[in-house]
From TrEMBL:
Organism: Mariniflexile litorale
PANTHER family (UniProt xref): DIPHOSPHOMEVALONATE DECARBOXYLASE
Protein name, entry field: Diphosphomevalonate decarboxylase
Single GO MF descriptor: ATP binding
Domain Diphosphomevalonate decarboxylase-like N-terminal: 13-171
Record bears the keyword Lipid metabolism: yes
UniProt KW keywords: ATP-binding, Lipid biosynthesis, Lipid metabolism, Lyase, Nucleotide-binding
Domain Mvd1 C-terminal positions: 198-326
Domain of life assignment: Bacteria
One GO BP annotation of this record: isoprenoid biosynthetic process
Amino acid sequence: NTTESGKVTWESPSNIALVKYWGKKKDQIPENPSISFTLNNCKTITTLTFSKKENSSDFEFDVFLDGEKKDDFKPKIQTFFERIELYLPFLKHYKFKIETKNTFPHSSGIASSASGMSALALCLMSVEEELGVDHLDDYFYKKASFLARLGSGSACRSIEGDLIVWGQTEAIEGSTELFGVKYPYKVHENFKDYQDTILLVDKGEKQVSSSVGHNLMYNHPYANNRFQQAHDNLEKLKPILESGNLNDFTALIESEALTLHAMMMTSMPYFILMKPNTLEIINKIWGFREETGLNISFTLDAGANVHVLYPKNESSEILEFIKNELVVYCQNGHYICDQIGFGAKQL
Ligand code: PMV
């Protein structure tokens, strides 16, 4: 191919898991299946500029975040390139400039790895197309998700929306460990426009990274039960998503969130990523739910921040509660209003 240079841009969202991925095998293969809501507002926008180079001995790239050169991001991307070179053989023949920005505040404690790695994977897919490789639509997204997985596991669930399953499980037809697939069954309209208000309890760097956490699931005393539970929870989620039963939904996702953190607390070495304010918020949510009967629930990522989930038609009362009662527990009063979204877009 004679294409010498070019430029592509993608925006890709973050996602929030309902059934959590925690524990992986080699090559970023998950130990258990997971399912997530794709988000809408928390996104990474990445522009990839590429130009042909003379030698092809090594990867050549520079990374910029908000216009500032970021050499500390390079090792992670170097590893990513090493893992995906087999599937994108042009990588060493081009020089890349990766310019990236997030719509959510930098170091908000929100992991940008899912949105960032999926945006970069999609840019690389577009480069491959510009170099003359044709992909059918469906294959383009599957391969993008496959590549994103090799950057950061959960990133494979950010390419499309609005509910994505990753990991092979009997409960979900067509599910695979290799990439995320759209949830294939009927979903009740209660889940349409579902809201996620993210309370930023702690914006600092986590004390224990996800990759260290995943590795601590090796030899974990409860690992096998936990992996089986994730399969069972996907099976249980099916009738909930179909019927729109929000009580059962709440019970399932809150249990998943606390189980994720229970795995951290029962690892060896053990660790705790929740902060006192995480628990304050959870208790307030439980109290408010008891009092009002509204469908407010929470989930957690591998961090202290709380994702508050609720249906759109209960937004006004719940948002008022969040502003009046929960925002005091956020660092500098920061929170982000998001909702379920439909995946990445080329710009
Ligand atoms: O994609 P990773 O390796 O950063 O792992 C993320 C794991 C959780 O966010 C805790 C759960 C999940 O399924 O997203």
